[in-house]
Specification:
single chain, alpha+beta, SH3 type barrels, 2 domains, five-stranded antiparallel beta sheet, two-stranded antiparallel ribbon, 8 helices
Length: 235
């Protein structure tokens, strides 16, 4: 084999096993003054001056935002609102369904239903919330499997987008354009990493969630499914 082919072969192997080594972003610090809740549905996350859907809007809270619950009250339409602290200086009323409360029994079930109704990146973010804030939930293996499968499904689209931004007018290796693709940044912040296969010139999910299932929940149904994904990804 020529020296050129040896170098190319070594590069192919090294790139195929390269991972982004991403870690989930640190949690935002929860404000003081009450029980912790996390915004999970930004469609309903209007912070209002009163427990009323027609009350003055103070601000809209971003998904993943932690708040502190001080009280609860029903509005004139029968909608339940939490009185929450957003910061030391800001408080208001937010619709109950906009948040999950880790200390509330069955809020993980409610969040799972929202995860399953979500798609693409939204599904990953909401999965991450359950994994970060419900450490004792029996739903964790199922959510880990959902997260991993969603990331792998998205890898094809991400590969196509990254390919369109790859240029030959550079001395940088082509695989570095894929792994530096800005579209991966928000996944990296959620602790979701990708690897690049030089032979097929496409990204794949790095399998971290599947490996966690096998390691922590080896006798679960999800572990059997995760092993299948890992076997397929290594073949």
């Amino acid at each position: 084999m020529s020296p050129h082919r040896l170098i190319l072969f070594a590069l192919t192997l090294s790139v195929s096993i390269f991972s982004t080594q991403s870690e989930a972003k640190p949690r935002q610090k929860a404000p003081p003054g009450g029980r912790l809740a996390i915004v999970v549905d930004e469609r309903l996350s209007a912070l209002r001056s009163k427990p009323d859907l027609r009350a003055k809007l103070i601000r809209r809270l971003a998904r993943e935002r932690p708040v502190a619950i001080k009280g609860i009250k029903s509005g004139p339409d029968g909608i339940a609102f939490f009185l929450v602290n957003v910061s030391r200086r800001t408080q208001g009323w937010i619709q109950r369904e906009a948040v999950v409360v880790p200390s509330h029994k069955a809020d993980d079930v409610r969040l799972l239903l929202l995860i399953k109704a979500s798609t693409d990146f939204d599904r990953i973010v909401r999965s991450r919330i359950l994994l970060d804030y419900f450490p004792q939930s029996s739903l964790r293996p199922e959510v880990l499997l959902i997260l991993g499968d969603t990331a792998e499904q998205l890898s094809s689209k991400l590969s196509q987008e990254a390919e369109r931004r790859t240029t030959n007018h550079s001395s940088a290796p082509s695989f570095s354009f894929f792994l530096n693709y800005s579209g991966l940044d928000r996944y990296n912040r959620q602790g979701v990493g990708f690897v690049f296969d030089q032979r097929s010139r496409r990204l794949h999910y790095d399998g971290a969630a599947w490996r966690e299932i096998v390691r922590k929940y080896p006798r679960s149904f999800e572990a059997e499914e995760a092993r299948k994904r890992l076997t397929h990804s290594s073949s």
